[in-house]
Amino acid sequence: MIMDKVKRTILMVPALAILAAAVRPMHIQGDEALESRVYLRTYIEATSAEYNICPELVEAIIEAESNWNPKAVNGQCIGLMQINSYWHQGRMKRLGVTDLTEPRQNILVGIDYLSQLFSENEDIYLVLMKYNMRQDTAYQKWGAGDYSNYAVSVAARSSELEREHGK
């Protein structure tokens, strides 16, 4: 009986650590507000529903692009979904987005872009390659059946998250 309690405790520690990491507050640049991943996941679910985009796909992209770091910068790409303001100026203006380091604004632009990509082609691998690389390169690779590691890993992670969320 004592061994059962010890085993349950040992098994619960990693689960609690994962839960703690999931709700850990993040420092948001700008207004210095604290928002948790749980709050952002709620925002992702609501916004994804409006655009008919799988929220787990959005989460998988965020993990791959920034590892949930709203201040991530890679060249001209900024924030959670690594949005390049140069390529998305019109989209940002249309959506009223002014600060790509603000997580909700960044996610909104990313989801809107995903919606556009899916309206052009429903193949998840092509959509993910177009999201991650030059459009012409994505079409060439996709046409040759050569899916990028990025596309394969993000699609797999999205499926994993769907299973975790009971979908």
TrEMBL record:
<dbReference type="InterPro" id="IPR008258">
    <property type="entry name" value="Transglycosylase_SLT_dom_1"/>
</dbReference>
<protein>
    <submittedName>
        <fullName>Transglycosylase SLT domain-containing protein</fullName>
    </submittedName>
</protein>
<feature type="domain" description="Transglycosylase SLT">
    <location>
        <begin position="43"/>
        <end position="133"/>
    </location>
</feature>
<dbReference type="InterPro" id="IPR023346">
    <property type="entry name" value="Lysozyme-like_dom_sf"/>
</dbReference>
<dbReference type="Pfam" id="PF01464">
    <property type="entry name" value="SLT"/>
</dbReference>
